Amino acid sequence: MIKDDPIQNVLYVDLSRRRFWVEKYPELFEKYFGGTGVAINLLHKECPKNIDPLSPENPIIFAVGQFNGLFPLASKTVAMFKSPLTGNLGESHCGGRSSIAIRMAGYGAIIIKGSSETPIYLTIDENGVKFRDASVLWGMGSYTVGRIIRELEIGAGVRTIMRIGPAGENLVSYACVITETYRHFGRLGLGAVFGSKKLKAVVILGKRSIKPKNSKIYRKIYNEIFDKATKLPLMRKYHELGTAMNVNPLNELGCLPTKNLSTTRFEDAEKISGEIFAQKYLGRRVACAHCPVSCIHLAALREPYKNEPYFYKTKMVSYDYEPIYALGSMLGIGSVEKILKLMDEVETLGLDAMSTGVVLAWTTEMWEKGMISEKETKNLKFNWGDHETYIKAVRLIVKQPNEFYRALAKGVEVAALKFGGLDFALAFGGNEMPGYHTGPATHVGYLTGSRHSHLDSAGYSLDEKTVKEKLNPKMVGETLFEEEAWRQILSSLVVCFFARGVYKPEIVVKALSVVGYDLKIEDLKRIGEKILKLKYLFKVREGFNLEKLRIPRRIFEVPTPHGYIVEEFIREAVKVYKEKIESLPEN
Amino acid sequence: MSSKRIFVVDVDLCVGCQCCMFACNRRFGEAGLSKSAIHVRSAGGVERGFVVTVCRACLNPPCLKVCPVDALTLRKGGGVILNASKCIGCGNCVEACSIKAVFWDKETNKPIICTHCGYCVNFCPYGVLTLKTVEEEFE
């Protein structure tokens, strides 16, 4: 760590008593770099066992890493909390300006505890915290809150504005936190934890500098990384079509989950491809702070006002592959415009797009099968492709007028346990499925990944690379474990996972030398494993058991490019992963 | 032929990555933003695009006129050069700049003046910024 790096400052905020203070953790940041590594240690310390995730005891931890502010593409903040969706580890990563703002305000982590009696928002800078009344903002959609706070507060350009929509206020288990209008702490329900604390928004701003010991070497390594990032073809793809580029190839390969994964090829896939989005709707591309890639794609949705001729509004809606899958193919919506309208509603309410899509897809299948009626749906008739009904439904998920919508607001697994249809309730470890039915590895990854995210260990990528080969459970379990362990290093520094092709182990070692480390790749692997183990221990502490995970039957009924998935394969690979992680020392 | 200066070629090319701000700060070997002479912010939400604030190298700069101790002198090609040893940190120059392109260094309590070195230009991947002479610009 750079001597006296302000990253060691951890800002504590107690919402109940409206107090704040700073504690220093030099050893912790020295040992774990920041981000995930530091956050999991703080979570073990600050989160009491078996608490209700929506109680004041649940801490919200934001952590940045030593590379944030120093190197390009280190643009993410890690949030940790106990997840209201899964009941164990809540971990979500977000870009925008969040990490730069926290780092430049002079903190390595911010811990928000307690809860406010009345709606509140926070403004955080290098001098500490201001507690501001948010009564007027309560109930507002995510765009409006951003617009208002933007005018109220200083720091344009060097601040992040994190906020929740009505979904977070109403404690929907998969409500998200939105920053810079289009980036998210999307998964696992951080928005509900904000809501439970009556915390509507957090503004963080700062403009500091950090001085590496050898500025010449710093600039040299910086340039090396920057060059790679701006020249690698992969990074170009993120910039050009963005992640939406996946729609066509995944559909052609037969792994695009469609209509609640009743099939993996969508007849209208071409109409909602990354190419169509870009050619017909792309209005602007923007970047996270300190990332030259600019992968954020905003579609311009031009809508006429119904009662006023020649009067239009043009809304900008951010899109990516996962929301297109979840709110598009998964719901049988084959029109970009309709998908954008639904996305926009989901964004306004502050729901996680992926969980929402899976929940709606399950609901549609339940309706189709006659397992629910108008009584449950409040007279909505769910049909594939009917975006208007879906827009009404997401509003009801937030409002929760009856038991059915209350269940939907708790996630697809809770809903299915109550209303049936568990076999096609596509959640893994309690988290709704990402958009890849590529083969066995992706599902093993959803099950074993500490966040139950496709980005934990990229099983889809292993499936795709081995399409013509025969996979075996041992290799899958081990490969995913190693990949996930390595990613703990990236998310501790905190480098965006999209930049993993730039931040190869050799580069990370080099860049770490700039901030004072003399480590070998082997050392990094060990630290990564240690962090992963700490996350696993937290999950187990909260009742998680890899052996007892439910596997939705649906994934065995629909073929993948690797053929039909066999349950024994999945169980065996999970076992291999479990043995790997349990064989690691506890400290 | 006058000295080169920075031009904002097309602000609509800007994606708001702020790599220019970080680049400017690295001139001093430091990571971060506190010494940056260029600033990028959204024009009221990123969907509306960005505002790039950087010295436009005035030929008759207001900042120079209000300096009470002649710490600012006219730069060849436009803009000003700061003589830090003369500067008393009054901040008049910050107030005088109509486009708010004079920033403040809290550490030294003196203004941050763009030297038009063009280091930031090298780190703008989208060609928003360029370094050239006024003659070149109007050719």
Brief write-up:
With 587 residues, chain A is of the alpha+beta class.
Descriptive report:
The complex is a heterodimer of chains A (587) and B (139). Chain A is α+β, with helices and mostly antiparallel strands. Chain A folds into three domains: 6-205, Aldehyde Ferredoxin Oxidoreductase,  A, domain 1, CATH 3.60.9.10; 232-428, Aldehyde Ferredoxin Oxidoreductase Protein, subunit A, domain 2 (Orthogonal Bundle); 431-582, Orthogonal Bundle (Aldehyde Ferredoxin Oxidoreductase Protein, subunit A, domain 3). In chain A, the strands form four sheets. Chain A has a six-stranded mixed sheet. In chain A, strands 8-7-12-9-10-11 form a six-stranded mixed sheet, sandwiched between helices. In chain A, a hairpin with a 2-residue loop joins strand 7 (120-125) and strand 8. In chain A, helix 18 (440-448) packs across helix 21 (473-493) and helix 21 crosses helix 23 (521-541). The two termini of chain A are 22 Å apart. Chain B starts with a strand and ends with a helix. Chain B is 16% helix and 23% strand. By secondary structure, chain B is an alpha+beta fold. In chain B, the strands form four sheets. In chain B, strands 1-9 form a two-stranded antiparallel ribbon. A two-stranded antiparallel sheet of chain B has the order 3-4. Chain B has a two-stranded antiparallel ribbon with strand order 5-6. Chain B has a single domain (5-127), classed as Alpha-Beta Plaits, CATH 3.30.70.20. Strand 13 (209-210) of chain A pairs antiparallel with strand 2 (31-32) of chain B, so a sheet runs across the interface.
What would you call the shape of chain B?
A: globular
CATH level-four homologous superfamily name of the largest domain in chain A = Aldehyde ferredoxin oxidoreductase, N-terminal domain
Low-confidence stretches of chain A: none
Mean pLDDT of chain B: 95
What class do helices, strands and sheet pairing of chain A give? alpha+beta
Q: What CATH architecture label of the largest domain in chain A applies?
A: 4-Layer Sandwich
Strand order of the largest sheet of chain B: 1-9
Strands of chain A, count: 18
First-to-last CA distance of chain B = 12 Å
Strand content of chain B: 15-25%
CATH class bucket of chain B: Alpha Beta
Largest interface: A-B, 43 and 28 residues
CATH class of the largest domain in chain A: Alpha Beta
Radius of gyration of chain A: 22 Å
Overall mean pLDDT of chain A stands at: 97
The CATH topology of chain B corresponds to Alpha-Beta Plaits
